[in-house]
Amino acid sequence: MSLTRLVWIGIAAGLRVxxxxxxxxxxxxxxxxxLSTPPVAAVKPHTSTWHGIELNDPYHWLKDQSYPTVDDxxxxxxxxxxxxxxxxxxxxxxxxxxxxxEEIKARQQQDLSSVPFRHRGFxxxxxxxxxxxxxxxxxxxAGNELRPDEAPENASTILDGPALAEGHDYFRLGGWxxxxxxxxLAFSLDTNGSERYSLSIRDIATGTLLGETIEEVxxxxxxxxxxxxxxxxxxxxxxxxxxxxxxxVGTDPTTDVTVYEEDNxxxxxxxxxxxxxxxxxxxxxxxxxxxxxxxxxxRPDEAPQLVLPRREGHEYSVDHQQNRFVILTxxxxxxxxxxxxxxxxxxxWTTFLEGSDxxxxxxxxxxxxxxxxxxxxxxxxxxRIIERDxxxxxxxFDEASFTVGVVGTDEFDSSSxxxxxxxxxxxxxxxxxxxxxxxxxxxxxxxxxxxxxxxLYVTERLLAPSRDGVRVPISLVRRKDTKTDGSAPVFLYAYxxxxxxxxxRFSTTRLSLLDRGFVFAIAHIRGGDELxxxxxxxxxxxxxxxxxxxxxxxxxxxxxIGLTQPGRIAINGASAGGExxxxxxxxxxxxxGAVIAGVPFVDVLNTMLDDxxxxxxxxxxxxxxxxxxxxxxxxxxxxxxxxxxxxxxxPPMMVTAGLNDPRVTYWEPAKYVxxxxxxxxxxxxxxxxxxxxxxxxxxxxxFDSLYEVAEEYAFAITSIDQ
Length: 722
Prior knowledge:
Blueprint: H1 3-7, E1 47-50, E2 53-56, H2 73-90, H3 94-106, E3 117-119, E4 122-127, E5 136-141, E6 156-160, H4 161-165, E7 172-178, E8 184-190, E9 197-203, E10 214-223, E11 229-235, E12 241-248, E13 257-261, E14 268-273, E15 279-285, E16 290-296, E17 305-306, E18 316-321, E19 324-329, E20 337-342, E21 350-353, E22 359-366, E23 370-377, E24 380-387, E25 392-394, E26 403-406, E27 416-422, E28 429-434, E29 439-445, E30 457-465, E31 471-479, E32 490-493, H5 511-514, E33 519-523, H6 533-537, H7 545-560, E34 569-574, H8 576-587, E35 592-598, H9 604-608, H10 620-623, H11 630-639, E36 653-658, H12 667-679, E37 686-691, H13 704-721
Parallel strand pairs: 32-33, 32-34, 34-35, 35-36, 36-37
Antiparallel strand pairs: 1-2, 3-4, 4-5, 5-6, 7-8, 8-9, 9-10, 10-11, 11-12, 12-13, 14-15, 15-16, 16-17, 18-19, 19-20, 20-21, 22-23, 23-24, 24-25, 26-27, 27-28, 28-29, 30-31, 31-33
């Protein structure tokens, strides 16, 4: 497996995925403007007509017309005023925020480090220094040892995150890749949250940066076998990854050859490598259709070879294992099958493992002699090991409900598979599964310095009846001594989009809620893929409202079984999960005691009507195309949170945004809050916080990210207990 595949940080095909938020600047970094009353946004008439239907959008002006540059003084003044009001509302709860932050921080291992992995004669490891915000990556020559736990004294630093972040309010490493000979490092950085990375090349031995810098890139690079050239992906002016180019070290980047360019505005492009490093793989696709090309790593100047032409609804991925190709495809069953093809013809597919209604094949990972399958049966994770002769076995775990997956591990010919394991009550654990002895070797267990006693907590898996008869899974965790007489508050989380299932996993931050008597629940609603691909399909397009109905019905089930009461439920979702928050607030506002909507995708109709935005054409297969389809227009309008706001009472709400966010643009939450202020008939709190120097994931930094979690928890606790 190539190092590129191990460390690549992708763009998730443009998903509006939720990210964990981060902290605002320290007081000394900015002078906060505080307001005792909420700001009032100006109302400016703006109308448009679609399919004979007139849309009125009096807060359209909050979209800076020079976007992605945001410099309109009136827009910035409004956002700053909202930030000031946010500070004034949160200020009385600062003591609780600080307490929660210190609790959460105390559970983090200060000098945390990863389990080293081996690649082409070196071991690689990341670590945090005591109190450090960003990772430091090191490597050292591999000797005879197979599984070192820590770096030796001769380890050398190849990437120093704290040093690279110095002087920047925001910093994120986009990805990095070492050349096959181990001599050069290509890495990309984002210093404003826009997810437009700058790519640099470093001579590892001397630490010297080479002269060329490549702008407007995303993801990692893939080195060719000659170690003189690599492939990378460009983004266009609308942030769409659209082009793959090849760079030769030492040449002017403006002369780089374009290897592939995608003209379809609904398709995103990416580049990777096969597990055995023999091929560079160029991918193009949207959320339901894909197409792949192969370039020999030995002959990087050859034209890409198309595997199969795109066909609407057909998704596939191609990998290579010694003398054969291995393909994951949905061509015969929506839950996918695994096929193989001879090395001289990647289009001649023969079924190797069939998908079925009962077996959902999520992903495959290739090793020299095994295919490792990440699959899901009845909503539960499984790891299957398939030998070349087709015989297979499953890795066994003791808990009834857990999350497990393959993570960055050793080389293609490794004798072990690295697995990440967790459950709602079990801290994250890294295992190496020995392929020869069929045994699990524990490599690292998440440490909680302030202490954790698993025996104090209990987890359950419930099934809630949805209004159309479907049973929706719920993962639930609480302290054993938490009352179940209806008095307990519940913190209910969900996402429900793009087929991104929310697996039951452990969280150190969550303990601060559990120890205060909260029950934490994950609603595995339709729109995710927890129960298979059909679960995803049943929450998109014309079935989108199933997602919202499931969430409301899960909450009502928790009330019906006597676990909690209306008004005692805090809800949380981010990005597309923020759209969920807006929709369920409109549907059943009386149920919620607090709502936390992170970078919420709440202006769905206007965004899907704006094909100049990078995440609009690619997402029509997810939501529908309201430009061309009147039925899609009317359906989206019927549930779009911004469009469905009306005069009535609303629960306490905390909304966040990122000024540089390319996924959910800042004006969506800003418009939503501005409009809601004019319609709400209650005295409940409504606050908006915009990170003025960050993007979709909030401000960067390990401990910074915990501060906003503390703010969110404080908001939930004080809102429900008021």
